[in-house]
Amino acid sequence: MQAYRALFVSRFLQVLQYRAAALAGFGTQCWWGGIKVMVLAAFFGQAGHAAPTMTLAQAITYTWVAQGLLALLPWSGDPEVALAVRTGAVAYDRLRPIDAYALWFARSAGWIAARVLPRVALMAAFAAVLLPLAGLQAWAWQLPATPAAVLAFALSALLALVLSTALVMLLNIAAAAALDARGINAFAVPLVILLSGNLVPLALLPDGWQQALLLQPLAGLLDIPMRLYMAQATGAQAAALLGLQLFWAVALVALGRLLMARTLRRLEIQGG
Q: In this predicted model, what pLDDT tens digit does every residue of 76-108 receive, in sequence order?
């Protein structure tokens, strides 16, 4: 485990150095967050009591948290893996005396975590602190109602990181098999944005879709953590949602290991 921990920390510290990218992403996410908040305000203003599953204040909080966690979403594979596949440097990973899947997983997890943490901290400072100080409390990021909701959200966010990394690993493996990451990344983006709840909270989609939307794996990236954050699920229901996230994380890791073993057995390194 020491080797994988070192891989995670080294990649985390490497990506954390790109402060300008974090600030640029934060600025963009504030802009889009503001647009989405205004759209939701207009929607709720016209819907009246037609959207009882979520209040406007909850939808606004959902939007700011979603913008802060935007880099958590697995809409592309690890660019370091894609580069190694293109250049043939992936052969070095096959020669290391450690598990190749765990190696890529640890590095990808560090890449994701280092992109998420600065942006979510900046978004919290802006939407949860600065907006109320500016007299815009109605448009601000609201804090969780109970300590239990804080704990449940923290556990769910950690599981979301593992689940996101497992999904990134599937994209990495597809890139290794196809020798190019662009096609699979383009296919992943719309699915992840819609089914994770980033585009619109899943609770606001048609009632007939709710069970299927909640059970699919991408809900564990954002929608389930936010249900726990807003205390829409407590007690046994909260435990069931955490269990669902854990199930999908384990299932996707098992699938990824199987696919990676098959892919690397057939991998051909060309060039010199």
A: 888 888 888 888 778 787 778 888 899 999 999
Any idea what DSSP says for residue 75? S
**H or E element at residue 264:** helix 235-265
Report the alpha-carbon distance of residue 133 to residue 21 in Å, rounded.
27
Residue pair 84/181 in contact (Cβ under 8 Å)? The answer is no
What is the CB-side half-sphere exposure of residue 255 using CA atoms within 13 A? 16
Compute the distance between CA of residue 67 and CA of residue 71 in angstroms, rounded to an integer.
8
- Quote the CA–CA distance of 163 and 86 in Å, as a whole number: 26
Orientation of helix 235-265 relative to helix 100-124, angle to 10°: 140
3-state helix vs strand vs coil in the chain, percent to 5: 80, 0, 20
Two tokens, residue 232: 């829409």
